[in-house]
Write a structure and sequence with these properties.
With about 575 residues, the chain is α/β, with parallel strands linked by helices. About 40% of the residues lie in helices and about 15% in strands. The strands form three sheets. A six-stranded antiparallel sheet has the order 1-2-3-4-6-5, with no helix packed on it. β12, α15 and β13 form a beta-alpha-beta unit.
Length: about 575
């Protein structure tokens, strides 16, 4: 049991009441305290054994400088104070309290952090640090960065003071871990430390796995660190880094190798805006046929993400993306908005009621009714990166090769979180294991997929599975925690067919007398892909006769084209729907 100097309720210097003991390290004990003005603070009490090790004048000066700051994102500190404990004089200081946790505590819980989230933490830390005079002299570690969970969005605050920096250089009784974040170049300490923290956020480890003696003099530890880096080149092609975006990898590894170190924060900011905030992910824009314009096409004064969004061409506005681009299907769009989009957009409100976002959904229904298109538009509506997978993408001639590909898919999606993994023809990947002729390695692949599906929403992943044969899927997939909702994508109804015809015919030469309603009525048993085919064939007939697209061309194609679906198939979908709990 850990014994602390102060207990809950103790009054320190008649000014600070102890609310709770938060823990200790080699040098200090940390407490949450309440001031006489009812403010919460963090109190750092120097341990008795550590008192002789510290250069008090330098620490007092550093605290005094922080005490005069009134900068957003920088935690204010008190002056150095003294309290008497059991007849001995002990030093302590305070700094602002954050309703959250340190980055160290976060990494201890999660090991690593998603790419976008990690980049935002480092960008916010760099922006806060840049407000300080001579900010490049500061060395930040995860201990210095605090995540504030109070409010709708998480914010970052920093306390740019490492107590280890004030240990006398000749002391060998405490490990000097903070030096692992230090650069050889004294002009860019902060940039190098931020690059190191970013690496640690992404992979849960330091860039170099130092095999050195940390409990040594300042000079000895620093020499060991710099020598270890020189003799162990950092390679960006390791297993840890293969799923990191290439641009980010280049920025991070250049900084860690002291290349363009002074521009690390600037390059990271540009990367975030281009890759994640411009204003949708590139993978979604590519899937919808749009190509993101390069930054060079923007006005020169477009500096913030807000001005970037305002300056882009109107063809890239939200009106070109999202669920409303789906013709008709109003009931389906209402369902997707209520059950998926809103809980993800307003997590705080839903979590207050104990409602978690869905882990995965199953799209099932006749082929050619738009399951893939709907999944793309749902990802675009959310602003998530989009992974479109077919069975052939995961196939491998090697034993366990498919299992490895499945693991890599979910790992990459988590690194690019928030993201949507869309798997088409999932019955080919997750067939029922009850099938008598299923081989052992095939069953292992199903097991691997089921394991990855478990609670993938906690990694920022929404799994969307699609199938034309829902009865052929392994039943274990459909349990809660994996697939939380099955959504039937039916044949298009009248309003959907009408909207589809208007969209497909838009921009083509159309006979002014064409009755869209009448044509829509005739297409009651056709799939979405059938309707697209019919319009295209009618357009070819009109082109061949140099006429406008009208009733005659459409009726000619309709008479020759059978529906892709029959009544018996529709009955199977109805039977499957009756067995579902959702």
């Amino acid at each position: 049991m850990t014994i602390s100097e102060f207990q809950r309720g103790d009054l320190i210097d008649a000014s600070y009441q102890v609310a709770c003991y938060l823990g200790s390290d080699d040098l200090r004990e940390t407490y949450r305290v309440k001031t006489i003005d009812d403010e919460l603070k963090l109190l750092k009490l120097i341990k008795a054994d550590s008192e002789p090790w510290i250069e008090w004048d330098k620490l007092q000066q550093a605290l005094a400088e922080l005490n005069t700051l009134e900068q957003p994102g920088i935690l204010n500190a008190s002056e150095l104070k003294i309290v008497q404990i059991q007849g001995a004089m002990r030093h302590y200081f305070l700094h602002d309290f954050v309703s959250g946790e340190s980055l160290t505590a976060c990494l201890n819980r999660q090991v690593s952090i998603g790419v976008y989230e990690a980049c935002k933490i480092i960008r916010s830390s760099a922006q806060a640090l840049a407000k300080l005079d001579d900010y490049q002299q500061y060395i930040l570690t995860p201990d210095n960065i605090f995540i504030n969970y109070l409010g709708e969005e998480k914010t970052i605050a920093i306390f740019p003071l490492n107590l280890l920096e004030f240990i006398k250089e000749t002391v060998i009784s405490t490990p000097r871990y903070f030096l692992a974040y230090k650069s050889k170049d004294k002009d860019y300490y902060s940039e190098y430390s931020l690059a190191t923290v970013l690496y640690q956020c992404l992979f849960g480890i330091l860039p170099w796995q130092y095999d050195i003696e940390w409990r040594a003099t300042y000079t000895a530890v620093q020499y060991q660190i710099f020598s270890y880096r020189d003799t162990n080149p950092l390679k960006p092609s390791s297993l840890y880094t293969q799923y990191i975006p290439e641009d980010l990898k280049s920025i991070m590894f250049q900084a860690l190798n002291n290349i363009e170190l002074e521009n690390f924060s600037k390059h990271l900011d540009v990367f975030i805006k281009q890759y994640y905030e411009f204003p949708y992910y590139e993978s979604i824009q590519s899937a919808t046929g749009l190509v993101k314009p390069p930054l060079s096409h923007l006005p020169k004064n477009a500096k913030s993400s807000e001005s970037l969004e305002k300056s882009i061409s109107s063809e890239f506005t939200r009106s070109q993306l999202g669920l409303h681009k789906i013709a008709g299907m109003n009931d389906l769009k209402t369902l997707l908005m209520a059950d998926i989009v809103e809980p993800l957009r307003n997590k705080g409100v839903y979590e207050e009621y104990g409602i978690q976002s869905l882990n995965g959904i199953l799209f099932y229904g006749p082929p050619g009714c738009g399951k893939t298109f709907i999944a793309r538009q749902l990802a675009a509506e959310l602003g998530y990166s989009f992974f479109e997978i077919k069975p052939s993408d995961l196939a491998s001639v090697y034993v366990h090769g498919t299992q490895e590909k499945i693991g890599k898919l979910f790992l990459e999606a988590s690194l690019k979180a928030p993201s949507v993994i869309f798997i088409d023809e999932v019955d080919a990947i997750l067939p029922s294991r009850d099938t008598a002729n299923m081989s052992q390695h095939y069953a292992s692949e199903v097991n691997e997929f089921l394991a990855q599906l478990n609670q993938c929403n906690e990694k920022g992943i929404l799994a969307i599975l699609a199938t034309n044969r829902p009865d052929a899927i392994d039943k274990a997939v459909l349990r809660t925690g994996r697939i939380d909702k099955a959504v039937y994508i039916p044949l298009p109804d009248f309003m959907t067919r009408k909207e589809m015809l208007n969209m497909l015919l838009n921009g083509r030469p159309i006979d002014s007398g064409l009755d869209i309603d009448a044509i829509a009525m005739l297409l009651s048993s056709y799939t979405s892909s059938d309707i697209n085919y019919i319009v295209n064939e009618a357009a070819k007939l009109a082109l061949n006769t140099n006429s406008k697209i009208g009733k005659d061309q459409l009726m000619t194609v309709i008479r020759k084209t059978k529906s892709s679906i029959n009544y018996e198939q529709l009955e199977k979908y109805d039977a499957f729907a009756q067995l579902q709990r959702f």
